[in-house]
Design a protein that fits this description.
- The protein is an alpha+beta fold.
- It folds into 2 domains: about 35-75; about 85-185, Ribosomal protein S6/Translation elongation factor EF1B (Alpha-Beta Plaits, 2-Layer Sandwich), CATH 3.30.70.
- About 50% of the residues lie in helices and about 25% in strands.
- It contains 5 helices and 5 strands, in the order ααααβββαββ.
- The protein has helices spanning about 5-30, 35, 40-80, 85-105, 140-150; strands at about 110-115, 120, 125-135, 155-165, 170-185.
- Strands 1, 2, 3, 4 and 5 form a 5-stranded antiparallel beta sheet that branches.
- A hairpin with a 3-residue loop joins strand 2 (about 120) and strand 3 (about 125-135).
- The model has no long low-confidence stretch (mean pLDDT about 85).
Length: about 200
Amino acid sequence: MTLSERDRRALLILGCAVIGTLLYVLIADSAPAGETAAPQDLIAAAEKRLDRVRQLVTQVPSREEQQKQMLAQLEQREKKLLQADTPAQAQAQLRQIVARTTSRQTPPVDIKASEFGQVKPLGADYGEVPVSVMIECGVDQLLNIVAELSSQPEMIAVNELRIYSANHKTKTANVRLTVSAAVPKRLAPERKGGSL
């Protein structure tokens, strides 16, 4: 296939246009970014950043006050942790609280057996010590015990409640009550693995 004179000239002009476009793109891209923006745009952007920084600065005192309030609340709540040197001492304290609560019932409820569970992490910052007790009491006494344990100044919760055989003559039931209390993180074992 032969090209006419006109086609050759068109190809030559097209080649020159492509080379010229490539040179323009290379020269335009090599210029520093700061030189391409208009000074008015730079001033407007700087003023917007300055306004934003001023807004943030005005929020600092209120945020500091919020932080102080939150730290005070945290300190109040952490006073409710069982304080002990070892996990066994914390469990003994928890057992004493349960014994004190059961002895206040009318008639007093005796703890027949106790079992200390394994201390485990409670979230990322605390630990949990469990104690299980076996008692024989009436249903109304059991409700009073659970309510009184929940209203203690320490962070205590009833985790498990199992009611076994009942004595129809005395209208009592054998109950296994598992109670846990929150303790500082230093008493809890390190969590292994990434799962909760």
